[in-house]
Amino acid sequence: MGIRERSSPSRSTLTSASSLRSDGYYLECRKDAQCECNMCKASITATLDLRQPFKPSAKENQPWPPPFPCSSPIPSSLSKKRGVHTLNSFSYTSPRLRKLRFRDRPFSLFILLLIPLVLFFSVPCLISFFSQTYFSYESFESLAQASFARIRLVDQLDLIQRHVSRISRSSFVSNCTEHGDVSWRLAENGNLVHSKCVIYASPVERISVWGSALMTGGILGRSLVDRSFTVLSGRVVEWQEGGLESITHSQGSSWTMRRWAASAVLLDSNTWILEYKRTLASTGIGDLHVLKYLVVSAMKKVAYNVKLYYDTALFVRMKELDPLSNRGVSSDDRQTPT
């Protein structure tokens, strides 16, 4: 038996095999071995025949053109389909979005309606708990009667301010005795034009003096709280709601108006009235009647504003369509006096 000489492999065969091995083709031949297997040669030949020759072209370096020009808008059909697909896929697969959709449930509407009611009933209780009332309707009348020890109105107001500051232990008491003080304001309550100065105000109670140097009259509108009045000077003629006879309140007289009550009053010249009332926080703002009154008042105000807006718009529209209003009088149509 003769020893078979190993023939040196050709350069092309090694190059093809190395390129195939680098390309990931599995051959049962090691790199340092002489591949004489017919199966390997046939596999290499068949693989080389199937490969296309590499032809570099300039088109590969060019970017792909956009599907739509930048100037033209995206078709609505594609945008709608894409948006709907994204929303549906995300809404049903994402648990975070399912939590965000909690507001679409009926229970969320109940929570949104419950929060204002809780605040409406709880806030007044907290205010009345942390605030203190220093006066009552009886003590206020006693304070007003004690002020008549002074003759002049300025001295009476000065005495009242001193007593209020001492009882309430507060330095935030307005000085209503100086002329031209900024504490005085021109107010209009129920078409009753008057000047008003707030002597003491807290979250639970308020003391003020109001009146007019001229004769005036109007309506003392309804209020959500009781009010106590004392005439410091002048005279007040009152017509209560539901009554025919008038009631005259002279200097030094006091009376109380219950909440929901209204009356017409006539003030003589130089009439000044001392008023005391408590706020809604101390008198039970949580009353359902108060809530009903506030809601009805707000709805009436909104309805009045809407009606006024539509009436104004209708008037302007009719003014524009009226041919007689737009036609001016020419110089030929004017009649000269004879």
What can you see in these coordinates?
By secondary structure, this protein is an alpha+beta fold. Among the domains are: 49 residues, no CATH class; 142 residues, Jelly Rolls. The chain has nine helices and ten strands. The strands form two sheets. It has a six-stranded antiparallel sheet, covered by helices on one side. Strands 4-9-6-7 form a four-stranded antiparallel sheet, with no helix packed on it. Belongs to the ERG2 family. InterPro entries: ERG2_sigma1_rcpt-like.
Percentage beta strand: 15-25%
User: Structural class of the helix and strand makeup?
Assistant: alpha+beta
Superfamily at the CATH H level of the domain at 137-278? Jelly Rolls
What's the overall geometry?
elongated
Q: Describe the main β-sheet briefly.
A: 6 strands, antiparallel
**CATH-level-2 architecture of the domain at 137-278:** Sandwich
